[in-house]
Amino acid sequence: MTDATTTQTEQTEQTLTDQLSLYRVGLYAVLLTLVGFFLAPIEAGLVTSFKTTTAVTETVSYMPPGPEGFTLQKWETAFDQLLRGLINSFVFAAPATVISALLGSMTAYGLTQIDWRGQIPLLALLIAGIFIPYQAVLVPLSRIWSVYIPLGDLLWFVWAILGISDDYGRLMALSISHIAYGIPICTLLFRSYYKSMDIDMIEAARLDGASVRKIYQRVVLPLSTPMFAVVLIYQFTQIWNDLLFALILLSSSSSPAAPVTLILSGLGVAQQGLDFALRMSGALLTALPTLIIYILFGEEFAEGVAS
User: Fold this and answer.
1) Cβ(183)–Cβ(100) under 8 Å?
2) Which residues does the UniProt record annotate as the domain ABC transmembrane type-1 (predicted)?
């Protein structure tokens, strides 16, 4: 190899190295910009929640407060005012999430692993239910739970025994509404998962004489853990953050059964103006349960999404 050829090869390698370095620099710059874009509102909300009212007006929103402007009082106030709503939200969101996921799993199992007439029309109805917007059912929903099935009046003896307000009948109605509204999307997610499931174990169980119920309990259900993680996270987030149904069925944040989103909508509002620090601390406090759910089921969620 001549000296000229060697020099040309070295120049080509140097050019490729420079181009690769520029590509990486550009890639990292774009990634850092995106990270900053998505984290900036969270950072601003977090530092604002630790500021006094005076510090909120005298400092830039994304800058941390100084020693004189730092306080934990906003978090304490937000926790005191939202504690009732956090408990109520967990009371109606947890069973609604689990029941809708379980019913969706069983419905999807019946639509994929069992042959019977009427599957296609029922599946079409379920898929159509996914596309019904919340706004379209607000009036019928309100009439059903207030006129035809007033759970607060029908179950008066339950509230009397428990010593709680009959407003919790409306909270039960809210939970049932979310179960009914969540079954279509849960069924669709589980159906996609079951369509790709290896049926060898199911066929083996059938040959051994296992019934449809036993196959579901002992084969299908244990294999559904990743998809259950996906559905539980999705449903819990949707139900926990719901405000529209809660506003229609419970209407007032002063109700003892009001969920946390309803109370949060009026938190920090006064005639003197908005208490931004209190509202930010309340918003972050309200978001904590969904964040905990993501952390607990994150590995199963990734596995379920990948499958």
Assistant:
1) yes
2) 86-297
Question: Residue written as tokens 């849960």?
Answer: 186
Contact 215, 205 (CB under 8 A): yes
Q: How many helices (H) and strands (E) does the chain have?
A: 16, 2
Q: Each residue of 208-244: pLDDT tens digit?
A: 888 888 999 988 999 888 889 889 999 999 999 999 9
Instruction: Give the per-residue SS3 of 99-117.
Output: HHHHHHHHHHHHHHCCCCC
Q: Tokens 């609604």, residue?
A: 96
**Residue 87: exposure state from Cβ atoms within 10 A (0-12, 13-18, ≥19):** exposed
State which amino acid sits at residue 255. S
> Which token pair is 112?
């994929």
Residue entry with tokens 């946390």: 260
Measure CA 193 to chain center: 20
What number of other Cβ atoms are within 10 A of residue 147's Cβ? 8
